[in-house]
Amino acid sequence: MTCLLSAEEVTVRYGSLAALDGVDLCVHDGQRHALIGPNGAGKTTLLNVIAGATKPQRGTVRFAGRNVSRLGPAARARRGINRIHQRPAVFPTLTATENVVVAALPRVTADPGWWPGRRRRAARHRAGALLEQLGLADLATVPAGHLAHGQRRQLEIAMALAGRPRLLLLDEPAAGLSAVEVGRLVEVLQALPRAVAVLLVEHRLDLVYALSDAVSVLRDGQTLAAGTPDEIRTSPLVRQAYADGVA
Ligand SMILES: Nc1ncnc2c1ncn2[C@@H]1O[C@H](COP(=O)(O)OP(=O)(O)OP(=O)(O)O)[C@@H](O)[C@H]1O
């Protein structure tokens, strides 16, 4: 099977430190792929390279059959790579619905006031459907700044889906959430349409095993192992890596 996303031989150096040292990664269409590893392994750096936020010294990123290595984050987002940040990035004074509508807009017409009425209505309708999907329908008219942390995270996922991504990059989505919010997040991620592939960086291995169908393990900027959740769970190499420098 060909890769929807492939990172090939990616190297990122900070001075004498190799944050990534010739890393390969392949994410298939619709796959739930988790990236795990001890602290400082290079997981966030690899997400940054894939999103276009960090330029590697060496290596190639291909997406949907094209070399996107030279494109910045906005151009990659337009091609379908969308990222959810560790700290939810929403517009606090806009309502939940307005946030999703704005996220669906092409950059040049970022003010919905410029849209023809039919298009604006369609965008609001879709925003309503996405908020429903994410369990936020009752909060549609609430300013995003008034939402709880977990609700803002769900709103950011709705915003990402509004751009019709083919790949969602999630960097520690459970960080800072309560147990109830984590449970809700797991449901939301499990219910995502298979048209969207997910690359998930997460320290909580229970979530990784609940959500993913492929796992890659980084250690010291290199790929230590890759396989199914069962293969990774029982790998002595991975157990040792976590025992040496637990996340
Ligand atoms: N901008 C930077 N300047 C210097 N060093 C950096 C920079 N960004 C990352 N590093 C270093 O690169 C290495 C990999 O960092 P990275 O954040 O990618 O690891 P990680 O696996 O995401 O870790 P964690 O699980 O702790 O978030 C670390 O040693 C980190 O200190």
Report on the architecture of this protein:
- The protein is α/β, with parallel strands linked by helices.
- The chain has two domains: 5-88 and 164-244, Rossmann fold (3-Layer(aba) Sandwich); 91-146, no CATH class.
- It is 36% helix and 24% strand.
- The protein contains nine helices and ten strands.
- It has helices spanning 43-51, 73-79, 96-103, 117-133, 149-162, 179-190, 205-211, 229-233, 236-244; strands at residues 5-14, 17-27, 32-36, 58-63, 66-67, 81-84, 167-171, 197-201, 214-219, 222-227.
- The strands form two sheets. The chain has a six-stranded mixed sheet, sandwiched between helices. A four-stranded antiparallel sheet has the order 2-1-4-5, covered by helices on one side.
- β4 and β5 form a beta hairpin.
- α3 (96-103) packs across α4.
- It is globular, with a radius of gyration of 18 Å.
- The two termini are 32 Å apart.
- The mean pLDDT is 89.
- The protein binds adenosine-5'-triphosphate.
